[in-house]
Design brief:
The complex is a heterodimer of chains A (about 550) and B (about 425). By secondary structure, chain A is α+β, with helices and mostly antiparallel strands. Helices cover about 35% and strands about 25% of the residues of chain A. The mean pLDDT of chain A is about 90. The chains are: A alpha+beta (about 550), B alpha/beta (about 425). The interface between A and B is medium-sized, with 35 and 32 residues. Chain A: Keywords: Cell membrane, FAD, Flavoprotein, Membrane, Oxidoreductase.
Chain lengths: ~550, ~425
């Protein structure tokens, strides 16, 4: 972790979301010296707090042609370069009796003009394809939707950036932008681990901090008009649907049900919030009510499915510069060269957009950075697979057969999570194969691999890398086991205990808005174990 | 408005989601303790079900190591039907087809009919070492196992010839589901039942053609056939219970468990109309005595020290108390209650070569208990437990009904109600 602080990087990228990690990858692949800084961990902002939907673009086809066209193009690229992060589930746009069936043909036309393939399906056949869909549907259109794991996608980008020489600092929060006259030349960071301030210098600073970019820009003395929009989602205990289910109408609340890994998600709501509230992401009772009420219309069985947790994220919407009131808000990509805009050299902002277009955003930002640095290299991120998605050597099956001896569940889960990198998970002796997380099938070997190679600082980071604690029990059985492994390899005992308390508190935060039925039983049992048996106190941290 | 507040709100219908991961089932699993290749009930059941819903490829053939003892379900404080989830997954996802061996073991009806026809030859042959070696290597039926002897005179045939007429003399009547073991291997148990029931004042009748309950078909993956037989049996039970108002009793705990619980849970065969009046003979008798409707008189000179073994399915039914209470009524009986543990045979499971070792390891604690108990013999309600215990210990095993039949003073008992 000893970075060369006197070194001047070509580019310092702020933000460890998909956009920041993608930009770091792109810059590093074009030969630039890169420093990526992130205040918490990868994918902790909007990147990790959405549906995980691999949009076909169909959702935007009628209202926003440009976004729709971008989506389908990136959708096809991600299938190629990030196949271990995505699932090609396909999606259905369902027309319910209360919806206008006339919208369907308008929708299909708009899709085809955006380049999105559609297929109108007889409702009866649609129900056979997706038995969980509402049996009352009067229309269905199949589109190439899918699911994407944002944590895996971001991590793979960061990994590849690192392979190409980029340096990465997590737990480093920007506290100031360093300037020399009208030129930005570095950042001042607060290292949360060591509790100290450090400075790094670079020719260009790229603000890829999403909604938090509002504050970053302020450090640089420029103003970006951001309008945070909060969206809440619910996670259900298991997969109810195999295909992504959408409502065939203009985008509205709670009209997408996405199957992702072992669970499915309904979302979202949409609510403008003041910029001061962007770090306070609670889910209200009304949000939960709307999500269940509308979700049941897509798939009635949601009414009798256990809810695991609720969470919310913030969309970084940007108002046009000539519209400070925010009436005409763009959902498209916003790239700002602050030299052109504000007369400030060496500082750019990439924001807006969506998870789906992170790569395109990175490409546009990198093009601008290269132009400024006078580097003439083409973008290759659309053609070269991310680490883990590389199929060239052996088939995935061969890889995992070599790795594991016994447990089929951990073997297949690891392969699903890490793709062709699964071979890096330690040799399958009985101990390494033992499960840490039983709900999600995470082995000791996989946890060790994540700790050693995937930038893990604490239990919550470990969860994003491996799904430890994301299953039905929400950490009840696995949290203490994972804490033990983490403590063995990097933490002191005292810190590990705080870390464990933090982790469980964070799990409880997501469960509290929906704490009834089996969920309240589970959390009660968890508290017996951790408070009653292990003597962990809620105020441990 | 008030009503709305108290309405259940998003409570799961999915039984597997009621699991709170307490892992008690895993502690009670007899297989996991001796065979680490088995992922255990929690992992195979509720945890695995969630993974299989993500991708059927998560189905693990190791699930066939489950004995279906249902001790996990008895242990579960959240009411998760763990055993059913595992059996259903095997039915739904297993790609391995039943082998010839499995068909032979599972088709107790057909094999029983053929074998009892040629009983002397079959009994001699399957007892011969070379034959058992061949069965071991060709069929993968473990050579340690002795097949139960087949009878030359099937229970059904005996009944029609010697017992049927006499049953009309009684005022009260029951039907008897004898099961394959009584019919093909051990008619004496059926004769004992008739003796006891007649003494109690009940005429005993056979169903209109009973078929094997199908438990072995289910565990060997022959689901279509099992479902067919289940439907047939439910109809036959209805004719007795609904039409003739005659309850059906059985001496086999597994048969009655299968008919009551596995038919609806695993085969989707509805049985509400017959479920309450289908029960074990010992429960039927105990309840009569308990309600003051029956008194039994026992021989003065009957003196035995008996150990009772609780078969897994009796544990699941919660019915062993009826059998042990009946046995305790016999004045000369000193009853030793063995700690409830699986014997390891689990029907056809223990006959399979690949399971033999697991089977014996599972049963070992029980065998030790029996050897240390210094009893005259063991009592139990399950025929396969009987084979296993007789093969693996020095003790003989008798059915509670057979013990009653020997201890009861028939004439004195009959006099009580004939007056």
């Amino acid at each position: 972790m000893n970075k060369n602080r006197s070194k001047e990087y070509d580019v310092i990228i702020i933000g460890g979301g998909a956009t920041g990690a993608g930009t770091a990858r792109d810059c590093a692949m074009r030969g630039l010296s890169v420093l990526l800084v992130e205040r918490h961990d990868f994918a902790t902002g909007a990147t990790g707090r959405n549906h995980g939907l691999l949009h076909s673009g169909a959702r935007y086809a009628v209202t926003d042609h440009e976004s729709a066209a971008e989506c389908i193009e990136e959708n096809m690229i991600l299938r190629k370069i990030a196949n271990h992060c995505i699932e090609e589930n396909n999606g259905l746009f369902l027309t319910l009796p209360e919806d206008d069936i006339a919208f369907q043909s308008q929708f299909v036309d708009a899709c085809s003009s955006a380049g999105i393939s559609t297929e109108i399906i007889d409702p009866k056949l649609a129900l056979r394809m997706e038995p969980s869909a509402n049996p009352d549907i009067i229309g269905a259109v199949k589109v190439p939707d899918g699911s994407v794991d944002p944590f895996r996608l971001t991590m793979s980008n960061a990994l590849d950036a690192k392979l190409h020489g980029a340096e990465i600092l997590t737990q480093h929060e920007v506290i100031d932008i360093l300037k020399d006259q009208d030129r930005v030349n570095g950042v001042e960071l607060f290292d949360h681990a060591k509790k100290e301030k450090v400075k790094y210098y670079g020719k260009i600073v790229c603000n890829a901090a999403g909604i938090w970019g509002h504050n970053i820009a302020k450090f640089a003395g420029v103003n970006i008009n951001m309008f945070p929009a909060k969206g809440s989602l619910l996670i259900f205990g298991h997969r109810v649907n195999k295909m992504v289910l959408n409502r065939c109408r203009k985008p509205a609340n709670a009209d997408i049900l996405v199957p992702g890994d072992t669970i499915c998600l309904i979302g979202t709501t949409s609510e403008r919030i003041p910029i001061e509230e962007i770090d306070n992401m609670y889910v209200s009772k009304d949000d939960v009510d709307v999500l269940i009420r509308e979700g049941v219309k897509l798939s009635p069985s949601l009414a009798t499915t256990r809810i695991l947790r609720a969470y919310a994220g913030v969309r970084p919407l940007v108002a046009a510069d000539n519209d400070p009131s925010g009436r005409s808000i763009s959902r498209g990509i916003v790239l700002m060269d602050h030299k052109e805009r504000d007369g400030l050299e060496g500082f750019i902002t990439i924001t807006g957009g969506k998870l789906m277009t992170y790569r395109l955003m990175a490409e546009e930002a990198t093009d601008l950075i290269c132009k400024k640095l006078d580097v003439d290299k083409k973008c290759e991120t659309a053609n070269i697979p991310l680490p883990g998605s590389d199929k060239s050597d052996e088939t995935l099956n061969n890889v995992s057969q070599k790795v594991y001896s016994v447990n089929g569940i951990t073997q297949k889960s690891a392969k699903d999570r890490h793709g062709s990198l699964a071979h890096k998970i330690a040799k399958g002796d009985e101990n390494e194969d033992s499960m840490v997380c039983e709900c999600e099938g995470v082995s000791i070997g996989e946890v060790k691999y994540a700790i050693n190679e995937l930038h893990v600082n604490n239990l919550i980071d470990l969860r994003r890398r491996t799904r430890v604690g994301m299953g039905t029990c929400q950490g009840e059985l696995c949290a203490c086991r994972a804490a033990g492994l983490l403590c063995e390899s990097m933490e002191e005992a005292g810190k590990a205990k705080d870390d464990l308390a933090n982790f469980l508190q964070e799990r409880w935060k997501g469960m509290s808005p929906i704490a009834w039925g089996e969920t309240i039983n589970e959390i009660q049992f968890t508290s017996w174990i951790y408070e009653g048996i292990y003597g962990l106190k809620p105020d441990n941290n | 408005m008030k009503k709305e507040i108290f309405e259940p709100y998003n409570v799961s219908d999915n039984n597997f989601e009621q699991c709170v991961k307490c892992t008690i089932c895993t502690v009670y699993c007899p297989v996991l303790e001796v065979n680490p290749d088995y992922p255990g009930p929690k992992q195979s059941g509720p945890d695995g079900e969630r993974m299989r819903l993500k991708d059927p490829e998560f189905y693990d053939e190791a699930l066939k190591l489950c004995l279906n003892c249902k001790r996990c379900e008895v242990a579960c404080p959240s009411g998760v039907k763990i055993g059913d989830i595992i059996q259903s997954a095997r039915i739904k996802y297993s790609k391995s087809k039943p082998k010839l061996r499995d068909m032979i073991l599972a088709n107790t009806d057909i094999v029983g009919t053929m074998a009892s026809t040629f009983a002397p030859i079959v009994n001699t042959a399957v007892a011969l070492k070379p034959v058992r070696k061949v069965m071991d290597s060709v069929l993968k039926i473990d050579h340690h196992r002795m097949f139960p002897k087949y009878t030359g005179l099937r229970f059904e045939t005996w009944y029609r010839r010697y017992a049927e007429k006499k049953q009309q003399e009684f005022d009260k009547h029951v039907s008897y589901f004898h099961g394959c073991y009584v019919n093909y291997n051990f008619p004496q148990q059926g004769k004992d039942l008739i003796k006891v029931m007649n003494a109690a004042g009940y005429g005993v009748h056979l169903l209109e053609k009973e078929k094997c309950c199908g438990v072995a078909l289910i565990s060997n993956g022959l689901i279509k056939q099992a479902t067919k037989q289940a439907k047939h049996n439910v109809e036959a039970f209805k004719k007795s219970i609904v039409d003739k108002k005659m309850p059906v009793i059985s001496t086999s705990s597994t048969c009655i468990f299968t008919i009551r619980d596995e038919y609806p849970h695993l085969l989707g065969v509805k049985n509400e109309e017959i479920r309450n009046d289908s029960e074990l003979a010992t429960r039927f008798l105990f309840r009569l005595i308990d309600e003051g409707k029956l008194n039994l008189v026992f021989k003065k000179n009957y003196k035995k020290r008996i150990a009772y073994h609780t078969p897994c399915h009796m544990e699941k039914l919660g019915w062993s108390i009826y059998s042990t209470s009946l046995l305790k009524m016999i004045p000369g009986v000193e009853l030793v209650q063995l700690e409830s543990q699986c014997c390891g045979i689990a029907g056809t499971y223990g006959f399979k070569k690949e399971n033999y070792q697991t089977s014996q390891e599972v049963g070992k604690p029980l065998f030790n208990q029996i050897e240390n108990s210094k009893v005259d013999f063991v009592a139990t309600d399950c025929e396969t437990c009987k084979w296993q215990i007789e093969m693996s210990t020095s003790s003989k095993v008798h059915h509670p009904i057979s013990i009653l039949a020997e201890a009861i003073d028939v004439e004195a008992t009959m006099k009580l109600w004939q007056k």
